Amino acid sequence: MLKLKLHWQILIALGLAVMMGSLTGVDAAIFGLKFYDVYNFLGTLFLNALKMLIVPLIVSAIITGMMGIGASGSLGRLGGKTLVYYMTTSLFAILIGLAVVNMVQPGIVDGEPAKEIIGLSADTSSFEQKVEGKGAGDVAEIFIRMVPPNIVNAAANGQMLGLIFFSLLFGYFLANLQGKKGDTQRDFWQGVFDIMMKITELVMKFAPIGVFGLVAKVIASTGLEAFEPLAMFFFSVLAALLVHFLVTMPLLLAFVGKVNPIAMYRAMAPALLTAFSTSSSSATLPLTMDCVEKNAGVSNKTSSFVLPLGATVNMDGTALYECVAAIFIAQAYGLDLSFAMQFTIVLTALLTSIGVAGIPSASLVAISIILAAIGLPAEGIGLILAVDRVLDMCRTSVNVFSDACGAVILARLEGEKPLQQKA
Fold first, then answer.
1. Does pLDDT of 238 surpass 90?
2. 49 and 214 in contact (C-beta within 8 Å)?
3. Domain that holds residue 390
4. DSSP code of 422?
5. Which pLDDT does position 55 carry in this prediction?
6. What is the torsional sign of CA 89, 78, 160, 144?
């Protein structure tokens, strides 16, 4: 029996949602049950399932990730340089996304928020309370929230920054815990992470149904006008990814790595095409390593450390996408993001891109985390799903290229001679 891949299932569900939403509208019913209520039920159930994953998934993902870094004994000279590179390029990507989404303002249509056009209806009072009277001077509060007095209470109230910070600390010190106690703890958290991966895969099997419900609900209430701001969002993300891919990374290669960027594109072409088609950094990893070693001339010693770590924690394209998506949703609600709130988005996107990047559909969970961190409803995620597949292919290519550039730049800093050096 032919089994369609998930992205084809989602595309079919999207087409059916547009057709059914247009045909039924808000009032059509069968046996006294409104189609609109059915759409709302399916969409809400899927969003709740995504929210259910957030706390256990982010805690276990970050702890196991930090365990892997520490357990390999890699937090030495090369490890330190690698982490600095990954944090720097992810930050550059997020800031590019922030600049583009603020310039284009995809959530604003004809000078008005796209809330009614898109069909967003959730209450935003909690967000408005957070931002009331806030400004650039309130950035200090963000760092205070990173150290919550009660970690259980922070998890219950969706204070994600504190949860992420605690998980980073816990994972780092767990990696250095010796003996039977350390082994037991590591086995436990690895088991939790593996279970959460399975649950996430299960939830994502129902993504086509969730997409159908969320999009059909919007089309039933607003018509096809909802796709205008969505198209602007799509091109905003694409433009930001291209700037990072064609400007930021070549500049780093030329001025830090002292190598020819054109030669790097040629060397990585097979891996980039594979990343684009599979939408998976992990699945592309063997080919990425092959291209970096054979075509770019990086030693196995460097590539075998930098690239597997990068496939887990270095997600420039994903971090950029999360930032643009969160601000697009805020714009659509007509909410004015202060400097402090935008800084929160940047910081949370940076940390979640490290913590949950290796999981299936990481961007959906990460965007939920960012929206929770700034007090925004998660309902806008449903519409983003409509264009997520194509953007996923693009951002995965950016992720893989950044990993490969990191291997070349770090090899150069370690005294190796990858690619053709500049005179």
1. yes
2. no
3. 6-22+33-413
4. P
5. 80
6. negative
Determine the pLDDT at residue 355: 57
418 domain residue, yes or no: no
Q: How many whole angstroms separate alpha carbon 171 and alpha carbon 189?
A: 9
Contact 309, 230 (CB under 8 A): no
Q: Which residue from 197, 184, 198, 216 is spatially nearest to 14, judged by alpha carbons? A: 216
Residue 1 lies in a domain: no
Determine, yes or no, domain membership for 421: no
As for how many domains the chain has, the answer is 1
Tens digit of pLDDT for each residue in 290-308? 889 888 988 877 887 788 7
Task: From 219, 258, 229, 261, select the one nearest 411 (Cα to Cα).
Answer: 258
Compute the distance between CA of residue 385 and CA of residue 47 in angstroms, rounded to an integer: 12
| Residue 151 belongs to domain with CATH number | 1.10.3860
Number of neighbours of residue 178 by Cβ within 10 angstroms = 7
pTM equals 0.73
pLDDT in tens, 358-410: 554 566 777 777 777 777 777 777 667 767 777 887 888 999 999 999 999 99
Per-position DSSP letters for 389-412, written without gaps between them:
HHHHHHHHHHHHHHHHHHHHHHHH
* Residue 195 identity: I
Residue carrying the six token digits 């000279």:
77
How many angstroms separate the CA atoms of 84 and 356, rounded?
18
Residue 353 lies in a domain: yes
- For the record, the structure tokens of 25 come out as 């509208």
**pLDDT of 141 over the 70 cut:** no
CA angle 393, 394, 397 (to 5 degrees): 90
Region of 170 please: left (phi>0), alpha (psi -120 to 50) or beta. alpha
pLDDT digits (tens, 9 = 90+) for 157-208: 766 667 878 887 888 888 888 889 888 998 999 899 889 878 877 887 887 8
